[in-house]
Amino acid sequence: MTHTDPGDGALPLSVGQEGLWLLHSLAPDSSTYHLAGGVRMEPAPDPEILARAVDAVTERHPMLRSVYADTVDGPRRRVLPPGETGRLVVREVPGAGDEELRRMVDAEVAAPFRLTDEGPFRAVLLRRGADAVALVVTHHIATDALSQWLLWRDLLAAYAELAEGRAPGLEPPATDFDHFVAAERTLLDSSRGARQADFWRAQCAGSQAAELPTDRPRPAVPASKGTSLVRRLPDALSEGIRRTAADREVSQFAVAFGALQALVNRWTGMRDFLIACPASVRRSAAREVVGYYVNPVLVRAEISRDATLGEVVDRAAERIRQATARATYPFPLVAQDAGDGGPLYRIAMTMVSTERFDGGLEVAAAGVPMRVGGLTVTYLEIPHLEGQCDVSLEVTRDARGLTIALRYDTALFERPTVDRLFDQYVRFLTAAVDDADRPLGRIRLTDADDKRALLALGGHPGAVS
């Protein structure tokens, strides 16, 4: 790999960023680590005002105008002056239908980043005439889920102020990402860091990555291509999960995670396995900072033969607490310490709560239109982060309930398999709410229609007991 000099002001990366930089260097055209969000604006916004709003956001958040390079001292980033990168791109697409517009959005999300000179951020306006889609795409090396919502809050607030003839009131954050990088280095040099390393070594010892049976053989080189199935849970089930979590004195995420562990156990027969949980390592002082404040932690399942779903949920809650208490120890070092025994996880799950969002975005995340600068603005769910592992579930908890995005590797799984997996996951969530004392082995994986289909395949289309 060629080593270059990023010039004055070169800043070190976090361990997680170093891992993402390596992945980008190995596959610079991959969109696996792209995050994206978009809004429909009616009527179409003033492009000049939106461009000035984008400039205000990139000026406030230096991570968005950072470029990256390899140096003799390791990978470094350098912050470019405002206006040198990350400017709004306007594409006039008059007459484009919704399907064509969606293809354009997908193409923008998939377009590679040139992190060495263009940076990790782009904003695009697809302008049809009567309405438009504004799109923000970032590379994970610079942002996380909360960062994406910070961007949208700041962008819409700046647009509203500019539309009223006022200057955007976006003050610089009280801290910056470099404080996190320094704190991470202090941890790794401390006895506390050594104790966390010991914990993760023990957590991984004797276990293995949970792995679902695939429809196709695993390729020698991961394709890192995927797609998403996004569905909203019925309101009654979302409310049941909330109530069950309160009754068991665990988090809603623990209920959802325990149901996933139970389903993996039933699908595979595995009793001791690891699933990853991307955890936030953002401290309150960094609430306003755009950056990569996420670290995968491993949650181990050890499921006995006669375990009930409630027991699995309670054990998951305790293991999640143990893992997140040590989330600041960088996962790349955990994987490095584990050696060459293969990936430590192939399945991941996370939950994003919109209660942390402000500026009206909590209801916007649920699809409720907002009024911004004289426009009606509706948030669009745009699939992203696809192909990172075999299967990942992102649960979004908003003001109205729960939505699940199930992302999967299309080189491994057919869509009907994933549809069935999702339906069975919902069945296990329902059991966690309605019948948590039932042993896992007695939770039905199929309903009557599934059984009829299976029997028909076997040449026995008769009655099902």
UniProtKB/TrEMBL annotation:
<dbReference type="Pfam" id="PF00668">
    <property type="entry name" value="Condensation"/>
</dbReference>
<dbReference type="GO" id="GO:0009366">
    <property type="term" value="C:enterobactin synthetase complex"/>
</dbReference>
<dbReference type="GO" id="GO:0008610">
    <property type="term" value="P:lipid biosynthetic process"/>
</dbReference>
<dbReference type="GO" id="GO:0005829">
    <property type="term" value="C:cytosol"/>
</dbReference>
<dbReference type="GO" id="GO:0043041">
    <property type="term" value="P:amino acid activation for nonribosomal peptide biosynthetic process"/>
</dbReference>
<dbReference type="GO" id="GO:0009239">
    <property type="term" value="P:enterobactin biosynthetic process"/>
</dbReference>
<feature type="domain" description="Condensation">
    <location>
        <begin position="10"/>
        <end position="455"/>
    </location>
</feature>
<dbReference type="InterPro" id="IPR001242">
    <property type="entry name" value="Condensation_dom"/>
</dbReference>
<dbReference type="GO" id="GO:0031177">
    <property type="term" value="F:phosphopantetheine binding"/>
</dbReference>
<dbReference type="InterPro" id="IPR023213">
    <property type="entry name" value="CAT-like_dom_sf"/>
</dbReference>
<protein>
    <recommendedName>
        <fullName>Condensation domain-containing protein</fullName>
    </recommendedName>
</protein>
<dbReference type="GO" id="GO:0047527">
    <property type="term" value="F:2,3-dihydroxybenzoate-serine ligase activity"/>
</dbReference>
